[in-house]
Design a protein that fits this description.
Layout lengths: L33 E3 L6 E7 L3 H14 L4 E4 L4 E3 L4 H5 L9 E3 H4 L5 E3 L3 E5 L4 E4 L4 E9 L4 E2 L16 E2 L7 H10 L3 E7 L9 H16 L5 E7 L8 H13 L3 E3 L2 E7 L4 E6 L6 E5 L2 E3 L4 E2 L31 E3 L12 H19 L12 E8 L2 E7 L18 H19 L8 H7 L5
Length: 450
């Protein structure tokens, strides 16, 4: 059980992604929950915005705390995706359909599912506004709206995805295009990008690069591939222990890393990618590509920008230890939409959910929160079709490893945990509100020393 939640990373904090539109939903005859196009009531004790990993996990926990009839989740998407699997889908190791389930099947029984979009938040009046100007009030609000993808901020996208040779593992609409481009590769530059914004699962842009390199070695195309990782960052990874290990892999596999390079335009008809040199503002470089994997710019959802609950950028402004809002004591945040200074992953959500559960319990009793979130997050760095470096770390970018081994080493066991065990545990433990991160297991594995 030590593995549970350890590698639940690369977040699935929003079920809907680029161009995914909400549609009419047919209720299951099983009656798994109460669903409504609009709110059946105008007040809930606990109102949760977002039906991704954070929202569903907290709805399950809140159901056990205040009763299903007093909890509602606002979520327009009819499909919930386990997005960590898309790294393997883009490399042909998993099928896209295995990452998807109907939202109704993950919604806790009896909890009301409000199939609408949040249009505005008014925390001073303890209410939100939905589509059609419908208002819903609450006693406690949990914001779990995830992060938004912005392909449109790159000139030539998203329309460029209609051309071959280009894909992106971050969208349900483009992840299979990555696999097609990988298979169709003949000879030339294979370019993998990292944007100049916060992203969810910061390891994912290079995971597909390592998998692509392994695939071309297996198929005999590697000598014809010039692999480039063009990243806006100045380091390969934010935690030195794992960065050192990745640097060695990059050297061994003859991969070129170009730091401080931000993708600003894609000329898909010419198979050209234009990058800005961040060290020389205004200076651009044009690269021809035979394959291009795009990691899009990301940011807070539009509804949070200039919202009373958000900081100056648009992230929900919460206490980094308790996840309680800094101004509104009955408002809380979890996951990618918050300004917590840690990597945005589903593993982080797991750890945050356990802390937030205890925080809300004490607030409901008019007591001060005592449980503290240490910034725990995890990223299983897939470096091949049977290899993973399991990175785990805290707010201080210091390793916070679960197992009493050197996790900076590539291991087959960690790959199978990522590829086979984690999807099962995601659906059956995290989303049901039964997993709050590996801290107790870590303490046991290290004989109480961590």
């Amino acid at each position: 059980m030590a593995a549970i939640g350890v590698a639940l990373s690369c977040s699935c904090l929003r079920p809907g992604v680029w161009l995914l539109k909400p549609g009419a939903h047919t209720m299951s005859s099983l009656g798994l929950h109460t669903a409504a196009r609009c709110a059946a009531k105008d007040y809930y004790e606990v109102l949760i915005l977002g039906g991704g990993a954070g929202g569903i996990s907290m709805s399950a926990r809140m159901k056990r705390k205040v009763g299903a009839e007093n909890v509602a989740v606002v979520e327009p998407s009819k499909t919930h995706y386990y997005q960590p699997l898309w790294t393997l889908v883009g490399a042909g190791a998993k099928q896209l359909e295995t990452s998807a389930r109907p939202t109704e099947s993950v919604m806790p029984k009896g909890v009301e599912w409000i199939k609408s979009r949040v249009m505005a938040l008014d925390p001073d009046k303890n209410c939100i506004r939905l589509e059609n100007d419908i208002k819903v009030s609450y006693k406690y609000l949990i914001i779990a709206l995830g992060i938004s993808l912005h392909y449109e901020k790159i000139k030539g996208l998203p329309e460029g995805f209609h051309h071959p040779k280009i894909g992106s593992n971050y969208s349900v609409h483009t992840v299979e295009k990555t696999w097609k481009a990988l298979q169709d590769f003949k000879e030339g530059n294979a370019i993998f990008t990292f944007p100049n914004t916060p992203v969810k699962c910061a390891g994912a842009p290079q995971k597909i690069m390592y998998l692509s390199e392994a695939y071309w070695r297996k198929t005999g195309k590697r000598p014809k591939a010039n692999i480039l990782f063009n990243t806006s960052l100045g380091v390969i990874f934010g935690v030195k222990k794992y960065a050192d290990a990745l640097t060695e892999i990059i050297k061994e596999r003859n991969i070129t890393v170009n730091y401080k390079r931000n993708l600003v335009e894609v000329r898909a008809d010419k198979q050209e990618a234009v990058f800005e040199n961040l060290d020389k503002p205004g200076v651009t470089e044009v690269h021809q590509y035979e394959m291009l994997h795009v990691t899009p710019p990301m940011g807070p959802p539009d509804v949070l920008i200039n919202s009373p609950v958000s900081d100056e950028i648009g992230w929900v402004d919460v206490n980094k230890e308790t996840l309680q809002h800094k101004k509104y004591p009955n408002v809380f945040g979890i996951g990618d939409c918050t300004n917590l200074p840690t990597s945005k992953t589903a593993a982080a959500v797991a750890a945050q959910s356990g802390v937030l559960d205890k925080t809300i319990s004490l607030v409901m009793k008019n007591q001060l929160p005592t449980k503290k979130y240490d910034g725990y997050t995890s990223c299983p760095l897939v470096t091949g079709y049977n290899k993973v470096i399991l990175a785990e770390f805290d707010y201080n970018a210091q390793p916070l490893e679960t197992f009493p081994i050197d996790q900076s080493k590539e291991r087959i066991t960690m790959y199978h945990m990522k590829a086979d065990m984690m999807p099962f545990l995601y659906w059956n433990a995290l989303l049901k509100g039964y997993w709050g991160g590996p801290a107790p297991i870590r303490k046991l594995m290290h004989l109480g020393l961590k």
